[in-house]
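Hi everyone, sorry if this is the wrong subforum. Our group has a chain we'd like a structural model of before ordering constructs, and none of us has done structure prediction before. Sequence below.
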Amino acid sequence: MPSALDLGVELIRKAANEDLKLNYAEAYKGYLGGIDYLLLAIKQETNEAVLAQIRSKTAEFLTRAETLKAHLNNEPGGPARQPPTSFSSESERQPSSDNRHPGMSPETSTLEIAIEILRKAVNADTENRYPEALASYRQGLDFMMLAVKYEKDPLQQSVLAGKVKEYLERAEKINAYLQAQHNPTITSSTSGSHINKTRTASDQNGAPDSVPYSEENSAPPPS
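Answer:
Right subforum, don't worry. Here is the predicted structure as tokens:
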């Protein structure tokens, strides 16, 4: 029986083909179906490296679906077509996770949960509790990607998609830092972009770059 990841990859492939043929309505539906399975795959996957890849690809296809939705809502005009990156052998191992819970409103409750979890992530981040921050960022991102998928307002959807990218980049930076701490043999050339090169006397271990946003706007705007 195919796994959620396999099903997600197959649906995304078909959606990408429809996208290339300019069949945007079919492509849009295909992306949404594939994203559902990718979100479920995220929930089931235990390999952290694979999880990071799946989350990244899910965010990418959410952005593409958002672009197609805006185009379809504004026909006959619309933004220029931007085909998504095709799957590589590596990306075939990417995410999927359906975190929807019975009785939960996909648009409101999911976003509220994402905001609350990401607030905790930012607080842990600013207090240098990086393992806790990373776990919260990842959990919050799973819920936020669902919120993006079900958001009906194109403008709000675009804002949320931007936040997904922002938090994903921050999570990846923290993850790289933590991996470097557990593996001192990693050279500065491989981790330098993720680790703050400016170290103070009280920060000899080189913490990751500071949180790229202030506490006031740390959490995404509520719907």
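For your construct planning: DSSP finds seven helices and no strands in the chain. The two ends are 39 Å apart (CA to CA).
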